[in-house]
Amino acid sequence: MQDITYAWFNNAQPTGMVANFERIFRAQQRAYQKNLLPTAEERIENLKTLKRAIIQNRLRLANAMDMDFNGRSRDESYLAEVVCSLEAINHSIKRIKKWMKPSRRRPGYLFLPSRAKVYYQPLGIVGIIVPWNYPFYLMATPLVGALAAGNRVCVKMSKHTPNTAQTVKALLGEIFNEDLVAVFSGQEISGSEFSAQPWNHLLFTGSTVSGKDVMRSAAENLTPVTLELGGKSPAIISQEVPIMTAARRIAWGKLLNAGQTCVAPDHVLCPENRIDGFVESFREAVGRMYPTLKDNKDYTSIENDYQYERLQAFLSDAAAKGAGIIEINPAKECFAGTRKMPVYIILNVDAEMEVMKQEIFGPILPVVAYKTLEDAVSFVNCRPRPLALYYFDYNRKNIEYIIHNTHSGGILINDTIAHAAQHDLPFGGIGPSGMGVYHGWEGFLTFSKAKGVLIKPKFNSAEWIYPPYGRALHKLLYRFLFREGEGT
Fold first, then answer.
1. β-bridge mates for residue 434, sequence order
2. Residue 258, φ and ψ in degrees, nearest 5
3. Which residues are catalytic?
4. What is the pTM of this model?
5. For residue range 406-451, what is the model confidence (pLDDT) as tens digits?
6. Same-domain status, 129 and 259
7. Most exposed among 214, 322, 370, 449, judged by the fewest C-beta atoms under 10 Å?
């Protein structure tokens, strides 16, 4: 996903704030040592406490996000941040006891009699770095996974969402001791200082550039990292799918949070003979959902000036290089003095345009023509692996072809965005779009140490193969094990 990287990582802070952070970090380490394996009941109660606080403070959170964006849809804050966070909590509460049970494994027959199990142990202290685009959901979801696994957590909020940061800090400070969960604003500690701590695990959501900095910093302590980054997620329209169906669902995913979503459809791959139909259907879909834009509380603003200017530069660059730009502005409004934008479709794009090089992260949708499905797949596979891939078709053979012949963090068929809110599916990128997964069971595993344990009884068959070697039993064992390779 996009981030403001020019000042994110090396942002010096007053030493007093850093000292307070280090004090809390050490307090969490001591608390963890006193309770290495919190019970299922403790973990469930922590999550229930968090759930109650979210429900009671949902308006407070939505208002804070509205202030940070200077115009954030309350319903989008509720649906995409609050409701999805509550779903993550409910999913974990129902399954924590099952997840914590040691899983039985089968020892090799050479090691019988023995028993093998895998125990899931909390890692310890988890650091979570939160971006600005979904400042509550992308804090809450990894927090839920870390608490479900029995860890203690420090959260660093983005400096670009100061109101949300202070609200989250106050909210979690009211319900949790700081030696369990502590929150720091972007003004209190820099990304480099936060990443440099000896975390037992570090989860970062943000841009690929900043993700590399986080990984370098974490490497000094051999800290394992989960990176949720983003990328240019394509939406492929088939030759047969109803064009309005695809256009409406792409419009919803593209314009949620004004396109400032790591899994938003970045660009569309459309059969060349269907482009005109897609453009008109997309225009109609936008008009139905957002008959006005400027003063429409359902339509979110671009979060900050830097992002707004970056999007305007994309449009200027594309126009200068010969692209066709179609503005969708249903009520023909003027947006002067705001950070809200009309919706744009860009046609006749090429690889030299910045809009095709960088993740867009806004209400701009390039449309790329293709002739065959194989051409569309080749287009995707010749580029960095995206966080999400969307395909619109009802033909099972074509769907299987897309699934098996492309690489992406996840795939959603006949819709956009929704897969990221499924907490029984792993969520994470691949290559430039991220590293590692979380959500649900996979999140529990990410924040746990799966510790293999082999238990042997008093009788130990291994003694039969102790030295001296070369005895008859050794020869018989080798003959049995190597029989398939005889004569080679």
1. 228
2. 55, 35
3. 228, 262
4. 0.93
5. 999 999 999 999 999 999 999 999 999 999 999 999 999 999 999 9
6. no
7. 322
